[in-house]
Design goal:
Number of helices of chain A: 4
Largest interface: A-B, 21 and 21 residues
CATH topology of chain A: Thiol Ester Dehydrase, Chain A
CATH superfamily of chain A: Hotdog Thioesterase
Oligomer: homotetramer
Order of helices and strands of chain A: EHHEEEEEEHH
CATH architecture of chain A: Roll
Structural class of chain A: alpha+beta
Helix content of chain A: 10-25%
Strand order of the largest sheet of chain A: 1-4-5-6-3
Number of domains of chain A: 1
Shape of chain A: globular
CATH class of chain A: Alpha Beta
Chain lengths: ~140, ~140, ~140, ~140
């Protein structure tokens, strides 16, 4: 299992007239979470795209437990529970500064070629980065 | 069952470097869908808030079947399958101009008081609007 | 002079905790305004990009006169005062349903090749569309 | 003069199909810049609002010099050249990791009461924070 943690502060433009982080902004927070998880592994999503492979999202689930408020520094915890295969599954937990869990969710992404959007297997160099976390 | 249909065009600012509608923008399309569904019923979400009741989202599911592209006029079909209770369930289908299904999803919303964010039952006048669609 | 008018409703996700349309969302409204102005002329910005030419924005000015509120149907008036040259200047006025002017601004865009981002002159077929509005 | 520097990384959702940071996303970067400038002064915009005063934007100017790209860590430099009065003027410069200036702009904000949106003078405690930078 791999757990990566990053922080992001709620800006004014992300709040809505309820005064809370708009429900539609969590996918961007999840994007930040999984991007920083890949960076922690020693690569980057940008690098993956530069090699001709992209990872479109196939599904998204979000559970809203409590509202996030303006100017709160949120902690995004990204959890990878298994080796990437044809799909790659990410789970996310978003906490406020008091350590209170506000939101959790998950996404499944696939690997496709930038050139023609066709599905491909994840490259070997990419899979190798995960071996220390998942054994053989 | 109640089905409401509305349209929305993909703008440049909603696309991402893949050239497609960014995955995180669908919740806004769903918001447009359910807002117009309520307007078709003869009320509006704004009016509901003006009476002191708001509807925060409790969960969201999105399935990405095919990408939506820049400048496409998307059709958002919003489906309400049952009378609102403590929760209100909305389903969404997003199609392109060729009638091809690109995306589907759902949300559950609850009713809370604007004054203190506490859960409440949906008001009687609101429920009455749904009676023609769901019988007694 | 060419004046094009289009409408767009303020959604919840575009408001901020002041309850108003967030100041950073007006550029998207301006994008909608100029895109629909080109469509009214008989072409589209998408078509221009398909021919290999794009129009990045070089500067933006926005004047905020009064707030736009949730669920208001805004009118975006886009004004083109002169033939496109190396630069193309657009002016914008945003009104609420009562015809009250809430916001005005302008942008300058240039023409560049999609292939290499280098500046080019606007194509002849594009310029011809403007002739009826600006004479010889 | 007061100069405050903060960083923000361009996420996928902020890029557009040109592959660059969408022109309409710079105002959010400016918001981050001026918010962190106030925090550096020892207060926060959130605290100001908690005391009943908000700062709506009255005008915005943006000059786009070169595109910002996906995953670049941008530096936002916020410059305050004079004591806040009825208006408060902020200037912004956005650089990429190579120190290349990509974008610059400015905003004027005013002070209003949260309760009724009426203009007020900036509070004394707020002005005092600026004295070390602007002398008597």
């Amino acid at each position: 299992m791999l757990i990566s943690t990053t922080k992001r502060r709620v800006i004014y433009g992300e709040t809505d007239k309820m005064g809370f982080l708009y429900y539609g902004n969590y996918p961007a927070y999840y994007e930040v979470g999984r991007t920083e998880a890949l960076r922690e592994l020693g690569t980057s999503y940008k690098h993956l795209e530069d090699t001709g492979i992209q990872m479109p999202v196939r599904n998204l689930q979000v559970e809203y437990l409590a509202p996030a408020r303006y100017d709160e520094m949120l902690t995004i915890r990204t959890i990878i529970r298994e080796m990437p295969g044809v799909r790659m599954h990410f789970e996310y937990e978003v906490e406020n500064e008091a350590g209170f869990l506000l939101n959790r969710g998950s996404t499944d992404l696939v690997f496709t070629r930038v050139a023609d959007n066709r599905p491909v297997r994840p490259p070997q160099w990419f899979l190798k980065l995960f071996l220390p976390y998942f054994g053989e």
